[in-house]
User: What shape does this take?
Amino acid sequence: MNGMRSRLHILAMAVLALCAAYLWGAFSHSRNLWPIEILRQVKDSSLVHATDQTIALSQYDSLGRLVFDPYKRQVECPVQSKETGVLLIMGQSNAANSGQKRFTTRYPDRVVNYLDGRCYVASSPLLGGTNHLGEYITPLADQLVSTGIYDSVVLIVVAVGGSPISRWQHDGDINEALIPLIKSVHTKYRITDAIWHQGASDVSQKTTTKVYVASFRSLISTLTALRVTAPIFMTIETRGCQDVGWAEDNPVAIGQRQLIDNEKIFFGANTDRIVELKDRYDTCHFNEAGQLRTAEAFAESISTVKNRVASKHGAQLPSKYDERL
Assistant: This one.
């Protein structure tokens, strides 16, 4: 009898565990929470470029950002001149090594990934982002060099997959992590451009326009206090992995557009439009075509703003710039 009760008890616990796993799976799938993003990436073995050994030897910080990869090649950090671009990339998964294609810079002596006082040849995955796949930041930097916008580019990544904007506002954990990081960067570099690529998580959480705008302005206040005066390039990016019910003019996208003032915050890329579902290998993360299209859009926007700032009379932005909104 005791044996039967024991087996029934074990069976009941197993059923409860399965139910709990199912409920968490349904909840996390609907909100793109851990471990859904990782499972999507490993679903197709062709997307897994890193070996288990590489990932096992890699190191991550408390936010889950990649801070050590055994195959990164350390190089001497470039000395910043007026022709050096220092890009700060902030956001969630599409800025955080979740792309299908891995890239290595075509300019290993001029495009580097900076972290904790050291520089490495820029290559996917970039140090400073969560996940271990590809990204569009390296080809963006290559375009900035190949088109003569900058002679060299330093990439600083703070990107956390699945992060809502509440984590980036004042008192959020990512906001607090930014403070020592940027202070450390300022001992060597002045940030020339910042990219903001986030929004899908807040659509799933039904964040209102008012809350999104206020939260982002809170982040801006933190950056301003840290003496980051660089133009910020806003991404219109709100497509999540669950496209059911998604509309282009959702509250988050409206908030992102409202924030663009062409003084401090500029249009960067509308990936809701230029990266279609066919360009997203799992309905939300970019494939190679989407990565390259995004890199090209940001390169064009950075070039436009840089030329405007350089203009003696501060000429108005060309109409093409506004049309992309």
